[in-house]
Each structure stands twice: as structure tokens, then as C-alpha cells.
Amino acid sequence: MIKSTLEYSIVFFISSLFLLSCTDNENSLSNIIEERTMFSESVEDTIIAKMRDVSQKFSINASKDTVITGESGVRVGIAANVFVDKEGNLVDKVKLDLLEATNVQSFIENDLMTFSGDEILESGGMFYINATSPNGQEVSIKNDESLTLSIPTNNIIGDMNLFYGNYDKDGKLDWQQIKGEKNMKIDFNMVAVPINSLPYNDILKDTSTYAFNKLPVITKEIEKLLNPKYEGTFIATQEFFDRFHIHMLALIVNPDQQDVFTEVMDIYKKHINGNLWEADEEVVKHLTPYYIASIDKWKKEAEEENFLSKGFLIVGKIFWNVLESASKAKYTQPISFSKLGITKNTTKEDLLKKGMSNAEANKYLFMYKEHEKRKVIAANAQETKNNFEKVKHYMTSISKLGWVNIDRFLRDPACQESSVSFIVDGVENNKVKLLMVFPARNICIQAIKNEGNKYSFTNKSGMYRKLPIEEEAVIIGLSSSNGTPYFGSMKVNIPIDGEFTLKMQPSTLNEIKISMEKVLKIEKPSL
User: How far is CA 453 from CA 382, 425, 450, 507, in A?
Assistant: First the structure.
């Protein structure tokens, strides 16, 4: 059931909208040798070595279309006859290894940092996939072919890119942005669903609450959106519902802006026969003066020690970055499988005859099957009157195996140079893995050891000194002494300058995992 009132909006903003913008740092795969190494052998930290995940194993008949599903919900669509051996011969029996790292705890446990060179990345999820023949020989994806992957996420960020992972000489996995590989990209495709399958009716059930009695405009707009004339348009997509939900919550926070809410909805409806990204752009332009006014108001109230305004000031800026990045996904109109001529009986050969590439045919057939599967799930949830939480997915095609990451570079006006440092106390061993983690952003970066037991997050080259000032970060310390694991954690609002002490204590691997889960408060997407 959709929660309501101001309390809901605060929780939603803080837990779901902690998303920011990015910049670019381009590298071409043309200079990268396909790297299949899952874990570097140079990892000295025994704790990390013991915590690392074991890859999931799958055996498939590669001469048939296959879909495999990982434990964290990553789905891999494998078209028939896409794997070849080193001589280029088709391979029909293939063993697959899949490892999913979809949140910061899995990043920590598998020693996966969010860096590209010296720049900080915000990750939408990492995964490793490899393929071998039954006798252990590596096989590759055939030229002009690709695998199609669906990666679950709590929130879609419109300006993500694919990064390819390679281990450097120090055994650290470095991420390089994929550029120039037409089959390796993120597809921001929408698929229309029956409007009644979206959670609008769940919101209507809350109209008896105080918030909705004061804001009848929300009910009126939902009733308009449920009009059958919007079936098959971007109004009938999960992506648009997410936008509606954001604007609805913003109205609950700013109840005096009912006219603005209506104007925003009218902008979307005006573009109903055009592209969603064009409507997104106009919405941002329209809302800019109201956003500036709200920020100024919250700043003034925050100076007066108003707790709610302090929270709104922080998440309001993040909320705005989400809206600004929406148009970058370039969502157009929903995919119409009927216009593409795709039914349950359509074959890859049918689509190739229509001029599609192998990768396009693989992608659309996979998407059609996933869409039909989700329609069944949604229908069943509706019949049993259970709330069906529609998890969002990144859809991507890959033509190389190994480590792949959905990322963007951290770029946020709240980021400034920070010389914050940490003293580690309680463990004699100087080899401490000290991490700074922003769970909602999926950022995990490793500290640099200074003299003695002091650590900082300033690279010697000065490349990643900028951190989101006043944002809460979780500091994690991992070490071992005489075979005993040590663990420490603390929460810190990032200052421009300052020094903190992290206390390390003896623990067990199981206790460390439980402690991390508690302090990081991981929220996993789930069907």
C-alpha cells in the first residue's frame, strides 16, 4: 500500500531519491583487451578474501534461446548460437559464471571500489559474467552478437553509462567507460502497460487521510490519467508513474503549489504524442523558479534550526538533480511490440529480415518475453489484491565478457574539496582497509594511508578530494591481527576539514556482515 502524509514524503525522499548528476570521462574499448579475471590474486586482506562471493554456476545448451536469473535478480538473455571458441566455431554446451554486486555491502565484500582512474563513480550495479566450454576453455560472444541483461534497481538514473572492469598492476579493479562499442550500451526503453496495473489506485485508497483531504487536486489528476485514451502512451508506463509520484510528494511538502502541480501534469499531457524527454525538459524549465524559491525558504528556516527544513534542503537539491537528469535518458514513446510485429511466435530470423541487427533482434525478443512475464505477475498480484511493487530495471546489451558496471561520474554542486581525515584506533596492524560509503548513491571509496595510523580520502594526485559536504557517510574499517578480524564503523557528516577517530574492535566474519548490513541499511529491489 502506498504510504501518505508528510512522513511518507520524508522517508521516500531520503531513501529513494538520493541520486545525483554526472560528468564524462571517456575511454574506448578499442584499446582494452577483454579481461576475464573475477578476483585479483594480489588481494592481501584476509578478511576481504574470506568474505568474497562465490560465482553462481549455470550450464546451458547454447544452441537454444536461454534466460538465466541470478540470486539478486539480474536476468541474462542468451540468444541461440552466440558463443564461439577461439577458432570461431559455434559452441553448443556452455558453462556460465555470474556474480552480482548490486549494493555497497556487496561492493565491500568483493573489494569493488567505485573509481575510474582517480574519479569517483556512482554505481547502478556491477556484475561479472564469464563463459567456458565444458572442458574449461574460454568462449567468446560472436562478432555482431550480444547478450541482453536486465539489472534491477530501486531507481533509474537517466545518465548512466557502461564501464568495463580491468585489474591494474596493484590488483585493483579500475573502471573504464565503454565508448565506441555499439552493442555495449544502456537502453532506456519504456514499455506501456495497462494503466490500471500501475499503483494509481493504491494512492486513491489513501484519499481519506489528512494530506489528501487538503490536496484534492491529486485525486482529480489521477482520475484524469486513468482515462483509456492514454493507454499505450508514456502515461501508461512505470517511468511516468515514477515522475507523477515525485511531483505528488513535492506537492505534499509544498501544499500551496497545487496550481503548479496541475500545470506540470498539463505539460506532460500536452506532449502525449511526442517524446517523454521533451516533456521532462519543459517541466524542469517551468519548475525552476519554484525550486529556487523553495531552496531559499528552506535555507532560511534551516538557519533557525528547523529540523524538517534541514532535511528538505538536502534532499530537495537531490530531488532537483533527479528531475534535471530525467531528460538525459532520452525516453521517447513506449515500445509497441505490435508495431514491431513481435508476438510469442516471432523468431530472430523474422526480425533480421526486417533489417534489424543481431543485437537489436536479441534485445527486442528478450524485452517482449520479459514484458509478457511481468504482465502475468502484475495480473496475479491484482487478482489477489496484493500491492505489486514494480521494480525498475536497467536494460543493457554487452558484447564482451568479464566485469561490467553501470555508472556515472560524481558531479554535484554540493561537492567541495575536503581534507577530512581519520585516525584508526584499536588494532595494531597497520594494514587497515578504510572505506567511505554513501549507501543511497552506491558509492564506495577506499582511503589512502598517511603517516602512522591516519587515513584520508585525498588522492596524492589531488583528483578526488571533492566530496558531498554535510552529507552523511558511513566509514567502515576492516583489518585483522594475529588471525582475528577487526571491524569498526561510524557515521559522519562530511566536513570541509576535520579529524575523527574510528575505534576498531575484534569480531567475527559473520558479525562483521551483520554489522555492515545494519549500519548501511541496504534496501534491495525485490519482485
Answer: 57, 8, 7, 20
Q: Are 248 and 206 a contacting pair, CB within 8 Å? A: no
Residue 463's pLDDT is 67
Residue recorded with cell 494530506: 211
Three-state secondary structure of 307-374? HHHHHHHHHHHHHHHHHHHHHHHCCCCCECHHHHCCCCCCCHHHHHHCCCCHHHHHHHHHHHHHHHHH
Is the domain spanning 415-520 CATH 3.30.70.270? The answer is no
Quote the CA–CA distance of 399 and 156 in Å, as a whole number. 23
94 and 413 Cβ atoms separated by less than 8 Å? no
Residues 6+ apart with CB under 8 A from 185: 162, 178, 396, 397
Q: Please give the pLDDT value at position 60.
A: 96
Residue 469 DSSP class: T
CATH architecture of 32-189+387-409: Sandwich (2.60)
Number of C-alpha atoms within 13 angstroms, CB side, residue 22?
Answer: 27
Do 57 and 447 touch, CB atoms closer than 8 A? no
Ranges of the chain with pLDDT below 50: 1-33, 210, 383-389, 525-527
User: How many other C-beta atoms lie within 10 A of the C-beta of residue 57?
Assistant: 9
Cross-strand bridge partners of residue 354: none
**Looking at residue 201, what is its pLDDT?**
80
- pLDDT, residue 379, reads 65
Whole-angstrom distance, CA of residue 419 vs CA of residue 457? 8
Looking at the chain, the domain(s) classified CATH 2.60.40.1120 span 415-520
Secondary structure E strands in 1-118: 56-61, 66-69, 75-78, 83-84, 93-101, 115-116
Distances (CA, A) of 324 to 24, 44, 188: 16, 42, 16
Helix (H, G, I), strand (E, B) or coil at 83: strand
pLDDT value of residue 209: 55
3-state DSSP assignment of residue 221: helix
How far is residue 189 from each of residues 11, 155, 294, measured CA to CA in Å?
28, 15, 33
Alpha helix locations (H) across 37-145?
Answer: 46-51, 104-109
Q: Is the dihedral of CA 438, 444, 448, 453 positive or negative?
A: positive
User: In a 3-state reduction of DSSP, which class is residue 506?
Assistant: strand
Strand 466-468 versus strand 433-438 pairing type = unpaired
The SS3 assignment for 276 reads helix
Would you call 228 helix, strand, or coil by DSSP?
helix
Residue-level pLDDT at 14 = 40
Q: Specify the pLDDT at position 44.
A: 60
At residue 340, what are phi and psi to the nearest 5 degrees? -80, -10
Instruction: Give me the amino acid identity at 149.
Output: L
